[in-house]
Write a structure and sequence with these properties.
Chain A: It is a multi-pass membrane protein. The complex is a heterodimer of chains A (about 290) and B (about 230). With about 290 residues, chain A is mainly alpha-helical. Chain A has 11 helices and 2 strands. Chain A has one domain: ABC transporter involved in vitamin B12 uptake, BtuC. Chain B is of the alpha/beta class. Chain B is globular. Classes of the chains: A mainly alpha (about 290), B alpha/beta (about 230).
């Protein structure tokens, strides 16, 4: 029982990171109808920048902030310089370009920083508090929950309460009509990419200290987990992405806890295949709203 | 030089068979101009070119003497043009209220939606509903209401009667005439429904296969049996 409780809390903590990363994928999917397969590599690139700043200044938090800002800029740059010029008549084009970006980013990171793991320290203790004799959550877990929760709340407020959020949604749903109404559709797309990449970088900074450390491919497995989470949630739904992330986190935690850590990566892929085959619209899909 | 909209020698399309050929048109402030013609005559193409969604081959489009071709589509609304596209263009994933807010979003401060709700009480009742839950008539009201929220000087309306019951079409036409009389709104109205369009228009322009074949006062077009038979088919 103790073990089950521990695995549950551990799974939720991992799941919160998957949720944030899945949210980043959903943001771009909603804005541009592209699954950004370069999200993991982009997050790693900004994590390298963040840790370089942290090493140079001695302040983890400054590095954290720099990583997120670098994510915003990188996202905007990728949209402006690359994705804007991709022919979107076939969805495959964007995917292929994104995969190309992965190779470029990982190659460049390897040239600059080398291909060995660099240790990445967590800023807070990862030793879990014991409550009633069961180790539940560490300070770092609480920080993860707090950061992801804040992102979810802020994005919700942005999209539902602000004129910019309304513009972004309109531009995504009906670009031509939005243009006629004075919405700068291209700018909204850039903003969507920037926000998504910023959230992705935040998720990267949160997850890398709990992994083996910094490496050009450090986010590959996280990407697959988060992509599975996003697909579970229907790819179109921010709430679905968050729930999907928590669900995948829990599942992975139980599987690695009871069956062994080596089974977990295969289990994610198996789950992804099962979801794509049986519920391609996701577990929480509403009936299709757009009929005409 | 009093014209609000001035279209000169406008040709749109590709190669030897343009969709629009040498079209000339003016709309004065407070005037309702009806563009009539059969399916495929080029009516929607005309509106889509005016609002910059299609590039013209040759010709000029001027609003208050300014070259509209140099203005980006998303800035048109700042120059006082609101375009209600064919098929209404309601963003079906957004609520009625969000659609209306979108119309006035570029204005600072943002205008109150109350005047729109007074014009269309039905929209006030449905303000929390999403676009896909609305009937055809409600969508048309929403599209027009949203265009009016931008407080335009010139309204480009593409087939407002399409798929609507005659009673609702009549309501919408009466509303346009009323707006014109009260606010001096100019309307360029593209319609297949000749009778209802001419019932409120000051001028009628008949397009056929991309060319303007005749242009008269609306009253003349309706009264002159010969013109009616020749160009309007009734």
């Amino acid at each position: 029982m103790d073990r089950f409780v521990f695995l549950t809390f551990d799974g939720l903590s991992r799941g919160a990171v998957y949720a944030a990363f899945a949210l980043a994928l959903v943001l771009i999917w909603r804005a541009a109808r592209i699954v950004n397969f370069a999200q993991g590599a982009m997050a790693v690139a900004t994590a390298y920048v963040g840790y370089s700043v942290a090493d140079a200044t001695g302040s983890y938090w400054l590095g954290f902030l720099v990583a997120v800002v670098a994510g915003l800029l990188l996202g905007a740059g990728v949209e402006r310089v690359v994705m804007r010029f991709v022919d979107h008549s076939s969805p495959l084009n964007g995917v292929v370009v994104a995969l190309g970006l992965v190779l470029i980013i990982q190659g460049v990171l390897g040239m600059i920083y080398g291909n060995e793991f660099r240790p990445a320290e967590a800023p807070l203790s990862r030793d879990a508090f014991e409550i009633g004799g069961i180790a539940l959550l560490s300070r770092y877990d609480l920080f993860v929950f707090g950061a992801v929760g804040a992102v979810v709340v802020l994005l919700t407020l942005l999209f539902t309460r602000t004129p910019t959020g309304l513009r972004m949604r309109a531009a995504a749903f009906a670009p031509d009509v939005s243009r006629l109404l004075g919405v700068p559709v291209g700018g909204m797309l850039t903003l969507g990419w920037a926000l998504a990449a910023g959230v992705g970088s935040l998720a990267g900074m949160l997850v890398i200290p709990t992994e083996l450390g910094l490496h050009p491919t450090a986010m590959d497995i996280v990407f697959i987990s988060a992509f599975t989470a996003a697909v579970l949630g229907g790819l179109d739904s921010p709430i679905g992405a968050v729930l999907g992330g928590l669900l995948v986190g829990l599942l992975l935690s139980y599987i690695s806890g009871y069956l062994g850590a080596t089974v977990a990566p295969m289990a994610v892929l198996a789950l992804l295949v099962i979801v794509l085959l049986s519920r391609p619209d996701g577990l929480f899909a509403r009936s299709k709203a757009r009929t005409a | 030089m009093t014209a609000l909209l001035e279209v000169e020698n406008l040709t749109v399309g590709y190669g030897a068979a343009p969709v629009l050929h040498d079209v000339n048109l003016t709309v004065e402030p407070g005037q309702i101009v009806a563009v009539l013609g059969a399916n495929g005559a080029g009516k929607s193409t005309l509106l889509r070119t005016l609002s910059g969604l299609l590039p013209p081959q040759t010709g000029s489009i001027r609003l208050d003497g300014h070259d509209l071709r140099k203005i980006k589509v998303e800035h048109l609304v700042r120059h006082g043009i609101a375009h209600v596209p064919e098929g209404r263009g309601v963003v079906t994933e957004l609520t009625v209220e969000e659609n209306l807010r979108l119309g006035g979003l570029w204005r600072k401060p943002q205008p109150s939606l109350e005047p729109i709700y007074e014009l269309f009480p039905r929209l006030a009742e449905r303000r929390r509903n999403e676009g896909h839950q609305l009937s055809g008539g409600e969508r048309q009201m929403l599209a027009i209401g949203r265009a009016l929220a931008a407080q335009p000087r010139l309204l480009l309306l593409d087939e407002p009667s399409l798929g609507l019951a005659p009673k609702i079409t009549a309501q919408i036409m009466a509303l346009l005439r009323d707006l014109r009389d009260r606010t001096g709104l100019a309307v360029l109205l593209v319609e297949q429904n000749v009778r209802s369009a001419l019932s409120i228009a000051d001028q009628g322009v008949v397009l056929s296969l991309g060319r303007i074949v005749t242009r008269h006062d609306a009253a003349t077009l309706v009264d002159d049996a010969e013109l009616r038979h020749a160009y309007l088919g009734f």
